[in-house]
C-alpha cells in the first residue's frame, strides 16, 4: 500500500488522475473501518487532510459552498441558519468523536442508502462539485446516487464541495433508531419548505437502494398548498392533505427487511415521520408569517 | 513509512508503519503508550479516544499517516509530570466511576475536553459529550457523578 499525502488541491487531483484506483481518505470514519476489518486493501490511500480548503465553506448570494471535508460538528455549530436540515441531520450522526472527523464529502463518497446527509441534501436541493484534472462537473444531487453504495463520480474525480441553496423556509430531519447516539438509521426523512418557489422537497433514507425523493408526495402537497392558498393565508394543512402526503411518502419507499427493521415497519415509520415533520415545518412557517404580518411598516 | 508527530507535548517518530495502520495501533504498539484502549476498531466504543489538534477523535479511525506533523494528546498526557492526577482523573477515582477500567481512558479524554470547552455543563451536555463512549460495567451513573464532581471542583478552584 502507498500513502499519498498531497499538500494542495491541485496535487490531490494530479494524484487521483495518476492513480484512479486510489481511495481518498478524509475523516476516515468509513474507510478505516473497512481497512481495520480487512474488507478493503487499496493499493493507494489518498489523504485529503492537508488540503485546507476542503474543510472550509463560503456563502455567495443564495448558495453555500460547503467544502467536502467540513466536519459535521462545524455544520451543526455554524450553519444551522443557512442549512437547518443538514445541521439537524449532522447532529444525529454517530457521536461527537465521529462528527469531529466525518463530513458530507465522505457520506457522498460512500453513498450508503443509510447516510444521514442524503435526505437533507435531497430536500434542500443542490449540486455536487466533482473535479478532475479534466475539469469541473456540477452534478445535481438528484443524479448523484446510482445504486447501493454507487455514485456518479468518475474514477479520476474528487468531490471539492457541495453547493447548497440557503434555506428560504423551515426544514426538518427525522430518523428512527434504537437510541439517540451511534445509530444507523432504520429509516430517515428530510423535508424542506421552499416558500420562495412555493414548493416542498423531501428526502428518504434507508428505505430504498439509494436515497430518494418522494416526488409524487411533493407534487401532491405543492398542488394542495397552492389550491388552498395556504402559502398566503397561513392556514393549517388540512389533516386529510397531511395524511395523503404521508401515504405517498410511504409509497415512494422501496424498503427491505433486514436486521434493523422490516419493510412494513419502515413504510409505517416513514408515514409517521412525514406527517410529523410536515406539521413542525408548516407550524414554523405559519409562525414566521404571523410575525411578519405583525411587524409595523418601516 | 515513518510517521512523526507530537504526543503529549513530545515529538515522537514511529518507523516501519504500515500505510493502512491506525493511529491507535501506532500509539499502543510502536510508541509504548497503551493507555488508549482497543475494543472495537470501528468507532463504536470510544475507548481509543485521543485529541488530535485538540479535537476528540477515535484514534482507531485515524490513519497513522494522517497524524503526520500534528499534535496528539492521549490519556497519558492528562496527569502532571510528577504523576499528580488531573481534576477529572481524581474525580473518577473519588466517585467510583471505574470498575474494569477499559472504557476509562476514552471517557477521561472526552470528559476533560468537555470541561475545558464548557466548565459548567448541564446533565444533557455531559450525556451528549460522552455519548460516543461505551461502558459495560458501571451503568454510567457514577461516571456522570464523576464529571459533575470534576466540574464543581474546577469551579471552586477558579
Ligand atoms: C461508529 C460509526 C457510526 C456512524 N454513524 C453514522 C450515522 O449515524 N450516519 C451516517 O450517515 N454515517 C455514519 N457513519 C459513517 C460515516 O461516519 C459517514 O459516512 C461520514 O460522513 C464519512 O465521512 P468521512 O470524512 O469520515 O469519510 P471517509 O471514511 O474518509 O471516506 C468515505 C468515502 O468517501 C470517499 N471520499 C471521501 N472524501 C472524498 C472526496 N473529497 N472526494 C471523493 N471521494 C471522497 C472515500 O474514498 C470513501 O470511499 C458512522 C461511522 C462510524 C464509524
Ligand atoms: S476502539 Fe476505537 S472506537 Fe472502539
Ligand atoms: S468500567 Fe468496565 S467498561 Fe467501563
UniProtKB/TrEMBL annotation, chain A:
The keyword Flavoprotein applies. Signal peptide: none annotated. GO terms for molecular function: FAD binding; oxidoreductase activity. Keywords: FAD, Flavoprotein, Oxidoreductase. InterPro entries: CO_DH_flav_C (IPR005107), CO_DH_flav_C_dom_sf (IPR036683), Diverse_Substr_Oxidored (IPR051312), FAD-bd_PCMH (IPR016166), FAD-bd_PCMH-like_sf (IPR036318), FAD-bd_PCMH_sub1 (IPR016167), FAD-bd_PCMH_sub2 (IPR016169), Mopterin_DH_FAD-bd (IPR002346). Residues 1-169 form the FAD-binding PCMH-type domain. The keyword Oxidoreductase applies. Pfam families: CO_deh_flav_C (PF03450), FAD_binding_5 (PF00941). This is CO or xanthine dehydrogenase, FAD-binding subunit.
TrEMBL record, chain B:
This is Carbon-monoxide dehydrogenase small subunit. It comes from Actinacidiphila rubida. One of its GO terms (molecular function) is oxidoreductase activity. Keywords: 2Fe-2S, Iron, Iron-sulfur, Metal-binding, Oxidoreductase. CDD domains: fer2. PANTHER family: OXIDOREDUCTASE WITH IRON-SULFUR SUBUNIT, XANTHINE DEHYDROGENASE IRON-SULFUR-BINDING SUBUNIT XDHC-RELATED. Residues 1-78 form the 2Fe-2S ferredoxin-type domain. It comes from the Bacteria.
Amino acid at each position: 500500500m502507498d500513502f499519498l499525502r498531497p499538500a494542495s488541491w491541485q496535487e490531490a487531483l494530479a494524484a487521483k488522475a495518476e492513480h484512479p484506483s486510489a481511495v481518498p481518505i478524509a475523516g476516515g470514519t468509513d474507510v478505516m473501518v473497512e481497512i481495520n476489518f480487512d474488507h478493503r486493501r487499496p493499493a493507494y490511500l489518498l489523504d485529503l487532510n492537508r488540503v485546507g480548503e476542503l474543510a472550509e465553506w463560503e456563502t455567495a448570494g443564495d448558495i453555500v459552498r460547503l467544502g467536502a471535508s467540513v466536519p459535521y460538528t462545524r455544520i451543526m455549530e455554524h450553519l444551522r441558519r443557512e442549512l437547518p436540515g443538514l445541521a439537524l441531520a449532522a447532529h444525529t450522526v454517530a457521536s461527537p468523536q465521529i462528527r469531529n472527523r466525518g463530513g458530507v464529502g465522505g457520506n457522498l463518497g460512500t453513498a450508503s442508502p443509510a447516510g444521514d446527509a442524503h435526505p437533507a441534501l435531497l430536500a434542500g436541493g443542490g449540486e455536487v462539485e466533482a473535479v478532475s484534472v479534466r475539469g469541473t462537473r456540477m452534478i445535481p444531487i438528484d443524479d448523484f446516487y446510482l445504486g447501493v453504495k454507487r455514485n456518479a463520480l468518475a474514477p479520476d474525480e474528487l468531490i471539492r464541495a457541495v453547493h447548497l441553496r440557503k434555506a428560504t423556509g423551515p426544514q426538518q430531519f427525522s430518523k428512527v433508531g434504537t437510541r439517540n447516539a451511534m445509530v444507523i438509521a432504520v429509516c430517515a426523512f428530510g423535508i424542506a419548505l421552499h416558500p420562495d418557489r412555493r414548493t416542498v422537497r423531501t428526502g428518504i433514507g434507508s428505505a430504498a437502494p439509494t436515497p430518494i425523493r418522494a416526488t409524487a408526495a411533493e407534487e401532491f402537497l405543492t398542488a394542495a398548498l397552492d389550491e388552498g392558498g395556504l402559502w398566503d393565508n397561513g392556514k393549517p394543512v388540512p389533516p386529510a392533505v397531511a395524511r395523503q402526503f404521508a401515504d405517498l411518502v410511504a409509497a415512494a419507499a422501496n424498503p427491505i427487511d433486514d436486521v434493523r427493521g422490516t419493510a412494513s415497519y419502515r413504510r409505517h415509520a416513514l408515514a409517521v415521520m412525514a406527517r410529523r415533520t410536515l406539521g413542525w415545518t408548516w407550524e414554523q412557517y405559519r409562525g414566521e408569517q404571523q410575525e411578519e404580518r405583525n411587524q409595523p411598516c418601516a | 513509512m515513518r510517521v512523526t508527530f507530537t504526543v503529549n507535548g513530545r515529538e515522537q517518530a514511529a518507523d516501519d508503519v504500515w500505510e493502512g495502520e491506525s493511529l491507535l495501533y501506532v500509539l499502543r504498539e510502536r510508541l509504548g503508550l497503551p493507555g488508549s484502549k482497543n475494543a472495537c476498531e470501528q468507532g463504536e466504543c470510544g475507548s481509543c479516544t485521543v485529541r488530535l489538534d485538540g479535537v476528540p477523535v477515535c484514534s482507531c479511525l485515524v490513519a497513522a499517516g494522517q497524524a503526520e506533523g500534528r499534535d496528539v494528546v492521549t490519556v497519558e498526557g492528562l496527569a502532571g509530570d510528577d504523576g499528580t492526577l488531573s481534576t477529572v482523573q481524581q474525580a473518577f477515582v473519588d466517585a467510583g466511576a471505574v470498575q474494569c477500567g477499559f472504557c476509562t481512558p476514552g471517557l477521561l479524554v472526552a470528559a476533560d475536553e468537555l470541561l475545558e470547552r464548557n466548565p459548567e455543563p448541564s446533565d444533557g451536555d455531559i450525556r451528549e459529550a460522552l455519548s460516543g463512549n461505551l461502558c459495560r460495567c458501571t451503568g454510567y451513573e457514577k461516571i456522570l457523578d464523576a464529571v459533575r464532581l470534576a466540574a464543581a471542583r474546577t469551579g471552586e478552584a477558579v
